[in-house]
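User: structure tokens for this one?
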Amino acid sequence: MKKCEPDRKGNEKISDQIGERFKRKIYVSLPWYEIYLYSALWIGALLIAAISFCLQAKRHGGDIHTVYWVKPWWSPLTAPMQRDETDHEWTTWKRIVRSELACLVVLYPLCSQLIKRFYPSFIIYFSALYSLTSSMYLIGVLPTLYVLAQIFIIFTSYLLTNNSV
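Assistant:
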């Protein structure tokens, strides 16, 4: 990188390399009035969203905070405890532990260690295939394809806009 040299006013000139980096940027500089307009619109939208949220919370306040006494699912000997019905994480973990998803989580380290030991050149293919099949099982085929399409589009745009590669 070239060294910056001071001009007559004592300011430093931007070197040619830094100028080239600014030319390759994806975004452009906006005028001050447009930045203020977008900032005002963004802050206004946030205020409207916050007010709407507060109004809906007041309207449905009694429905949101419901607490029930339930018997813990992991032990039949434990006394009942309070559970918040809005806590979806509780039911999600309960379903995961009771289903075959726990088997998927336990099988991966075991299979991966066996493949690393006996077929080390295939570990990357196994990891990719296992991730794809697990994702398809958990969220479905179309969402998995959608995520893969997003990754492909982002990588392609990176390759097209980056001159150093």
